[in-house]
Amino acid sequence: MTVPQAAPCMLQAWQFAEAELRGFLRHQLHDADAADDLLHEVFLKAMRQGGRFCQIDNARAWLFQVARNALVDLQRATRPSDPLPDDLPAIVDDPAPVEALADCLPLTLASLSADDRDAIEQCELGGLSQVEYAELRGLKLPTAKSRIQRARTRLRAALVAHCGVRFDAQTGAVCCHVPRDCSVKPQD
What we know:
Helices cover 62% and strands 4% of the residues. It is built from seven helices and two strands; from the N terminus they run αααααααββ. The chain has helices at 8-29, 32-48, 59-77, 97-111, 114-125, 130-137, 141-163, and strands spanning 165-167, 174-177. Strands 1-2 form a two-stranded antiparallel sheet. Helix 2 (32-48) packs across helix 3 (59-77) and helix 6 (130-137) packs across helix 7 (141-163).
């Protein structure tokens, strides 16, 4: 491997920072030989920059960042690891909670009364506004609003009971889901 010619600005920065870098690495590693090896790697990386090194705003900070990165890489590579025990249970390939909820939602909707299911399907899933829903069903707006609100409340209760959905007490948003058996009986 050929190393580019060292730029004079790199050699000057190295001259000012070498002793400080060596002290830093020796302090971190508690091993003079390992510190010198890392210092050599930092020097080579600086050399590879060639003329681009002169464009670095703070050469000392750059050299120390490269030294810290090299130190982290070394520590990661030499970190002891214990083998996994042979009797470690295998990970069960359960469906993701979102998939289980997606399976449970249609069954829960089917368990609602026809009026509740219609209100949810038209407004929540179909995107109709409450005014449009009232017009579609020939209802007065307050009646439509009440019907939609009751349907939402019943759907929420059914999701809690049948699908294990939990809501955040402060925001009312779904915070988690504990999959359950979703065999729900329709109310129709």
